[in-house]
Amino acid sequence: MRDMRFGVNTWLWTSPFDSGALGLFGKIRDMGFHVVEIPVEEPGFIKPAEVRTALEVYGLEPVIIGAFGRDRDLSSDDAAVRRNGMDYIRSCLAIGEALGARVFAGPAYSAVGKARSLPDAARKAEWDRAVAGVREAGAMAADYGLMLALEPLNRFESDMVNNTEDVVRFIGEVDHPAVGIALDGFHMHIEEANIEAAIRRAGKHLMHVQVSESHRGIPGTGQFDWAGLRRGLEAVRYRGAVSIESFSPGCGTLAEAVCIWKPLAESQDKFAEQGLRFLERWASDGAKGNN
User: Fold this and answer.
1) Any residues with CB less than 8 A from the CB of 285 and at least 6 apart, and which?
2) Partners of residue 65 on adjacent β-strands
3) Confidence (pTM)
4) Is-catalytic flag, 191?
5) Catalytic one of 37, 126, 191, 245
6) Is 36 inside a domain boundary?
7) Residue 290 in domain
8) Which CATH number is 36's domain given?
9) Is residue 11 part of a domain?
10) Of the residues 37, 151, 192, 196, which is catalytic?
């Protein structure tokens, strides 16, 4: 895995992403990253021509990350909400195409934070609406030249797709070649019994990988099974990026939504730098444990 490409999400520093965040690109590249995750919280905040120029100046590859609130829920019983979700996905895909991205990742099937106990019939109805919506979104992604990678979320953030078994079943029902899987080590640590087996289950459908730690902190400082992740990625011959995703307590509404109440590192720059150094050792020699 010595040729692994590493990325970082701009959420580590700021939210929402807009033109003001372009100043991060030089720092990100100087740290040694080759990929930047660009979250699209509000499509209108992003000026694709400016962003693409900055990406080209610093030689960074973009991955588009979706932000799915309750007004963008493809599983909703409200047709207007589903249409709004589809319009949002279309906007993200258009931005991705303009930036030269290859992957649009996120929990596109439902709203983040939608976690309830439902009767079986109601749960199936939501699942079926989500499948139909994601199938349509997959067709749009193909038209824009991107792959749509669905991310399972832990049980505290979703009641629909929590682990690799769930997402494999979901994309099997979607049955579209432009729809695959994004896995996030933070959620996997909570929901998967075996990290290596989960990666193997995703197999050829795995398009993107995000990491932090079991406590959302710097990679290598917690209890995440890095050895299992490495074995799994090697087994499926994964060729995508591995990207750090965490958050700053200064990100206001977003930090509150993901329960980041205090700093997880001496500084957000230190978080990124130390995390990348760990990942480089991990990829080259299987390093594990504290930085």
Assistant:
1) none
2) 39, 105
3) 0.96
4) no
5) 245
6) yes
7) no
8) 3.20.20.150
9) yes
10) 151
